[in-house]
Structures are given as structure tokens and as C-alpha cells.
């Protein structure tokens, strides 16, 4: 009958509107889970893909949600940045409760999920995990050997200062490259799906296209460790990707990687502090042998 046909059309239009609404809400999320080195931006969180098999989620494209993430993560320093720059930061899955994920009953933390009102998950768990990361590196140094294979860490601060006066430490300009994110989710579900399942399927099955990464300021005059604009800078890496100075200590900072889009220089003051830190930690490790005599 015309009434039934009209009701069917209304239902179809309603479902289409819900899907459109979902897509709009989904686009406010910036969830990228690709095979590239990431580090968590939360204050006092030192997680990176080199030390933990955990997921990393880009800040939401929704401005209110993105700034809320930054504030909760203790990153008031990025609140004044433009949204396009804030969304380049990541939070790791350690900061979200289990009910924020698509499969809370399992250990799979690959996907954050939207609730029935399409609201964006909010991070609620924050703690200092520096010692956990240091302990992991000290106990399993072999896991990080491939990122630091040379013996430059044996240099003293004096030799580093001498090398700072050579031409080998001249700054090299880098140009931001385009990164292509390919994101594919496994096998599709059976064809007989409820509307809610269709929405979830639509949420999971999509591909990120090419993204042009740009930075507000040049990072060639900033120290990677203290974030200060200084002049007495030296390169962190050699051309082959190995750490140049203070290898042993920088191994404790696995989130620092060559060509990761962040400053690639370190000041001499920070190098001295790093060397002191490395010597102290090595002393702690050696002292443990006294208890084994």
C-alpha cells in the first residue's frame, strides 16, 4: 500500500542519515594504526613502538576533543597550536580503560570504539612509566642493538666536544616527506548484518590516503632533549642511522629515532647530563655484582 511504501522509504532515508551522521562523527577521530615508529605524547609516558606492543591513536580531528586529550595528557604546551598540528601527536592505549576499545573482553587494543551517541573515547589513565622503560632496556639490551650498533657511546665528553668543532657535524636540511597510510581491516563479516553491525563495519573498514605532513617551525635550531633554541648543537645520528654521541645513554630513549619528523640535534649541555646519567645507571648495574659474591 502507499502508506507501507512511504514508511519503508522513511526507514531507508533514516538509515542513510544515521550512516552520514556516523561518517561525520567518525571523521572527527584520527585513529591511525600503521607500521611506523610512534611515541606517546602524554607527559611522563615514555612508551614507543620499540618497547611495547601497544596501539597508538592520533589526536581527534574534533577540536574540542583534541584539546581535551591534550589537557588530560598534561600537554598544555600544545594547546595553543593549530588543530592540524595537534592531530600529529599520539596517545598510546595504556591511557584508555578497557571499555574504550572495540573488544574490551580481549587483549586486543587495536581500535577505539564509538558509543551509541558517537562520542569520542576519553583517556583516563595516566602514570609515570619511566622506570618501567629503563628497566626493560637495561634487562634486555639486545632488543635495542639494531638501533645502536656502533661504539660511539664509548667516547668521552671531551672527544664529543672536539668532534663538535669538525665539519662532520654540520647541519643537514631535511624536507618533510609525504607518508602514505594504508589501513586495512581483516575479513568482512557475513552479509546479513543488523544496522548497528553495518555501522561498526563501516567504521572499521576504511583506508587512509596520502597525508602531507608540515611543521610550523624549523627544528634545526632546537635541542631534541631540552627543546630549547640554542646554538651549540650536534647531530644525534650518523648517516647510517646509528646514534652519533652518547650511544649507551640514548639507548634508554627509544622514542628518539632518525627521520621521525622531530629535531635531530642535541645540545652539549644535555649531552653532558646524558653521559652522567649513563655512568650512574651503569654504576648501579655493576654494583649488583657485589651481592652475588
Automatic annotation (TrEMBL):
Gene3D superfamilies: 3.40.1800.20
Pfam families: THAP
InterPro entries in the cross-refs: THAP1/10, THAP_Znf, Znf_AD
Keyword terms of this UniProt record: DNA-binding, Metal-binding, Zinc, Zinc-finger
Gene Ontology MF terms: sequence-specific DNA binding; zinc ion binding
Domain ZAD residue range list: 221-293
Binding site for Zn(2+): 223, 226, 267, 270
Entry GO terms, CC: nucleus
Domain THAP-type: 36-126
PANTHER family according to UniProt: THAP DOMAIN-CONTAINING, THAP DOMAIN-CONTAINING PROTEIN 10
Protein name stated in the entry: CLUMA_CG005969, isoform A
Amino acid at each position: 500500500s502507499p502508506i507501507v511504501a512511504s514508511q519503508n522509504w522513511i526507514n531507508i532515508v533514516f538509515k542513510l542519515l544515521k550512516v552520514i551522521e556516523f561518517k561525520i562523527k567518525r571523521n572527527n577521530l584520527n585513529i591511525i594504526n600503521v607500521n611506523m615508529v610512534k611515541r606517546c605524547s602524554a607527559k611522563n609516558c615514555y612508551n614507543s613502538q620499540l618497547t611495547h606492543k601497544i596501539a597508538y591513536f592520533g589526536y581527534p580531528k574534533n577540536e574540542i576533543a583534541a584539546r581535551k586529550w591534550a589537557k588530560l595528557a598534561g600537554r598544555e604546551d600544545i594547546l595553543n597550536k593549530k588543530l592540524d598540528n595537534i592531530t600529529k601527536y599520539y596517545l598510546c592505549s595504556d591511557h584508555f580503560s578497557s571499555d574504550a576499545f572495540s573488544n574490551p573482553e580481549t587483549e586486543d587494543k587495536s581500535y577505539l570504539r564509538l558509543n551509541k551517541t558517537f562520542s569520542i573515547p576519553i583517556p583516563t589513565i595516566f602514570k609515570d612509566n619511566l622506570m618501567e622503560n629503563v628497566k626493560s632496556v637495561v634487562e634486555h639490551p639486545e632488543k635495542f642493538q639494531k638501533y645502536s650498533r656502533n661504539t660511539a657511546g664509548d667516547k668521552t665528553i671531551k672527544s664529543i666536544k672536539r668532534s663538535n668543532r669538525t665539519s662532520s657535524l654540520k647541519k643537514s636540511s631535511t624536507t618533510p616527506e609525504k607518508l602514505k597510510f594504508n589501513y586495512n581491516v581483516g575479513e568482512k563479516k557475513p552479509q546479513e548484518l543488523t544496522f548497528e553491525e553495518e555501522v561498526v563495519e563501516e567504521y572499521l573498514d576504511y583506508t587512509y590516503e596520502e597525508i602531507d605532513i608540515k611543521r610550523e617551525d624549523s627544528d634545526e635550531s632546537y635541542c631534541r632533549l631540552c627543546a630549547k633554541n640554542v646554538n651549540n648543537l650536534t647531530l644525534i645520528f650518523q648517516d647510517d642511522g646509528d646514534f652519533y654521541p652518547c650511544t649507551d645513554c640514548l639507548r634508554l630513549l627509544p622514542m628518539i629515532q632518525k627521520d621521525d619528523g622531530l629535531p635531530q640535534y642535541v645540545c652539549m649541555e644535555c649531552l653532558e647530563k646524558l653521559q652522567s646519567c649513563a655512568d650512574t645507571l651503569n654504576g648501579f648495574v655493576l654494583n649488583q655484582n657485589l651481592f652475588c659474591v
